Amino acid sequence: MTVYETICIIKTSLTDEELGKVITKVRGFIEKSGGEILKMENWGKKKMAYEVRKEKKGAYVFFRFRGPSPVVAELERQYRLEDSIIKFLTIKCDPKLLAEEMTRESAAAVHAASPAPVAVAVAAASPDSTVGG
Q1: Helix, strand, coil: what percent of the chain each, to 5?
Q2: Mean pLDDT, rounded, of the chain
Q3: pTM to 2 decimal places
Q4: How much is the average pLDDT of 46-62?
Q5: Domain holding 28: CATH number?
Q6: Angle formed by the axes of helices 70-81 and 16-32, nearest 10°
Q7: CA-based max dimension of the chain
Q8: Whole domain around residue 56: which residue ranges?
Q9: Which residue from 40, 51, 80, 84 has the highest number of Cβ atoms inside 10 Å of its Cβ?
Q10: Confidence of residue 126 (pLDDT cuts 50, 70, 90)
Q11: Mean pLDDT within 26-46
Q12: Bridge pairing between strands 36-52 and 85-92
């Protein structure tokens, strides 16, 4: 199966609860169509470069998923039917770049999990100081 990434911009006029429902709905579209979600990130509300459907800001949500090609067609059809989604983009991931990113993320996770080295402070004795008097 192929790996895809999709970003959708959702109206900011929605409450946080309604935004959560739209995100859950998108997850449902992907899973119902036979896709498997690999990564999901809510990038938050941001100002857009230009006005889209009379909206100046949008809530950006990123999904990476694996699935057959018909998943993309169904997902984009559902995006068009959902009034709260004002813009979207779906791309096919390059397997080489995806593999590089996975190794970077796993290396970062290993580095974060390892304990930080403890710095040992060594007090240098000055030539003026005498020990014991």
Answers
A1: 35, 35, 30
A2: 86
A3: 0.75
A4: 94
A5: 3.30.70.60
A6: 150
A7: 87
A8: 2-95
A9: 84
A10: low
A11: 94
A12: unpaired
With beta carbons less than 8 A apart as the criterion, state whether 40 and 4 touch: no
Contact 91/5 with Cβ under 8 angstroms? Answer: yes
Domain presence at residue 24: yes
User: At residue 109, what are phi and psi to the nearest 5 degrees?
Assistant: -65, -40
Residue keyed to tokens 């169509």 = 33
Label residue 119 exposed, middle or buried (CB < 10 Å: 0-12, 13-18, 19+).
exposed
- CA 123-127-133 angle, 5° bins: 90
- Tokens 């974060």 sit on residue: 112
Number of domains in the chain: 1
> Does the residue 48 lie in any domain?
yes
| Single-letter residue type at 100 | E
